[in-house]
Write a sequence for this structure.
């Protein structure tokens, strides 16, 4: 069975003395009628696909529209050649998020998490973390289950698609998932994971989906960076003992309310926001003339 | 909701609705036809028509018609592969009344002359809904084993079809009945919990008043 609230997961953890990840793994076993081994194996496939997507980034590649590509390479060169403002680790996260978002726009193989448009957020924090610190594969898989569990609750309580609830539903959900995953990797408990979900989502409430020419490129690729960096700061705040005053489920409900109130022009239709700025309209014309 | 619909699918970008879902629509068309079509006329509606080109929706549908899955790295090159495999295709824009913004209408032709018309839409996250088959309302997702039976609109056919399944020990998950008008052709769409063996389908095809039985199991 799948969960309708973060609170249900917390109750289950408490009642049966299980971790957040263990509860989510069990629900997958029940839902798909598979063994624990199969459940972990399937998540391992997702992780391997993320790593292989990361390794196959090509900085020379450009999207069909020509709007994105190459920025992940620039960030990588910059962080290797000098001291960055964010420091090496955060700069690597930024580079990874850009690279994954660009690979997606260039029709390479990625893992939707929870959507293709937000596919850069989770790998952007997990891949550099796994490289930097000695974490076992099991710990990474458990962190991914935490992320998936959070995403599932958001999807059933609210939405995860930009067309339904704006970018807050897409990159916002991905950011909440990534924050929870990081807290899990750092050994945080279920309650802390819930705070991470709440705080990450709170930070992006109201974010609209206004893609230039309706394509998953501008501003989507760079918003993946924002989602990833937001997850880092939230995870550190939670591990410092900082709590969300509003519980996760209430934040998710607020996200839903905000999404429902959001005008349709700001929900992936490319009829408002950045998509209708003079520059965006000019790009849109050029793209239509060249590839339509 | 399946956990791996949230963390996943593994897919070729850039969009789960405009790319992954579009591959699945093409794939269902190919499976329902029984083979890679010889000819395909593809009509795109709404957002599929407006932003499809930039999302590779056209490449994705062709890839699906060639039997590819959403994670196939050959999707960006599907048009060249179609030429090699002798699949002739053309794209059109079309306004379809009351259709979901991400809708495609496929007219497919088999090398043996068999034809299939299919209307389907992409719901997001790679999930799809088959709206119509050969002009009759169908409404199924294709995520479960699905049986589509076209029959005369006369008493007893529904009972025959469900009895045939029951005798084989197959549980019906959902069942939808439709017809264009009284006494015309009807369509029965049945989703089941388990795979339907070929001999059961063969038995069904031989029933009187049964015009066409199509079986779809995307897990297979």
């Amino acid at each position: 069975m799948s969960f309708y609230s973060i609170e249900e997961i917390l109750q289950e953890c408490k009642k049966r003395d299980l971790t957040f990840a263990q509860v989510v793994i069990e629900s997958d076993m029940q839902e798909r009628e598979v063994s624990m081994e199969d459940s972990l194996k399937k998540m391992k496939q997702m992780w391997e696909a993320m790593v292989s997507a990361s390794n196959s980034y090509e900085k020379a590649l450009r999207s069909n529209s020509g709007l994105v590509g190459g920025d992940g390479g620039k960030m990588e060169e910059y962080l290797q050649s000098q001291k960055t403002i964010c420091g090496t680790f955060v700069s690597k996260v930024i580079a990874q998020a850009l690279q994954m978002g660009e690979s997606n726009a260039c029709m390479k193989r990625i893992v939707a998490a929870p959507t293709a448009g937000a596919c850069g957020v989770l790998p952007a924090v997990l891949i550099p973390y796994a490289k930097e610190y000695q974490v076992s594969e099991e710990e990474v898989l458990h962190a991914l289950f935490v992320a998936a569990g959070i995403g599932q609750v958001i999807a059933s309580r609210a939405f995860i698609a930009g067309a339904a609830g704006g970018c807050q539903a897409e990159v916002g959900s991905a950011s909440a998932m990534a924050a929870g995953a990081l807290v899990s990797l750092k050994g945080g408990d279920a309650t802390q994971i819930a705070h991470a979900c709440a705080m990450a989502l709170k930070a992006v409430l109201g974010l609209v989906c206004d893609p230039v020419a309706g394509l998953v490129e501008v501003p989507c690729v760079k918003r993946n960076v924002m989602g990833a960096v937001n997850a880092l700061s939230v995870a550190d705040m939670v591990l410092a003992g900082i709590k969300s005053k509003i519980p996760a489920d209430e934040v998710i409900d607020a996200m839903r309310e905000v999404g429902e109130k959001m005008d349709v022009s700001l929900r992936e239709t490319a009829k408002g926001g950045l998509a209708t700025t003079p520059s965006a309209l000019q790009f849109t014309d050029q793209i239509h003339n060249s590839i339509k | 909701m399946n956990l791996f619909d949230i963390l996943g699918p593994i897919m070729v970008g850039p969009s789960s609705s405009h790319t992954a879902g579009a591959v699945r629509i093409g794939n269902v068309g190919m499976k329902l036809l029984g083979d890679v079509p010889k000819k395909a006329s593809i009509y795109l509606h709404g957002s599929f028509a407006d932003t499809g080109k930039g999302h590779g929706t056209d490449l994705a549908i062709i890839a699906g018609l060639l039997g590819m899955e959403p994670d196939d790295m050959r999707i960006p090159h599907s048009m060249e592969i179609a030429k090699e495999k002798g699949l002739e295709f053309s794209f059109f824009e079309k306004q379809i009344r009351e259709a979901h913004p991400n809708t495609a209408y496929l007219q497919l032709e088999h090398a043996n002359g068999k034809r299939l018309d299919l209307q389907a839409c992409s719901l997001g996250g790679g999930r799809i809904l088959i709206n119509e088959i050969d002009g009759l309302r169908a409404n199924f997702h294709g995520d479960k084993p699905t049986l589509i039976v076209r029959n005369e609109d006369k008493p007893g056919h529904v009972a025959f079809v469900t009895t045939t399944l029951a005798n084989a020990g197959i549980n019906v998950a959902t069942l939808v009945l439709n017809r264009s008008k009284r006494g015309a052709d009807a369509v029965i769409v049945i989703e089941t919990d388990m795979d339907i063996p070929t001999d059961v389908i063969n038995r069904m095809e031989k029933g009187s008043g049964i015009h066409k039985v199509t079986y779809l199991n995307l897990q297979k």
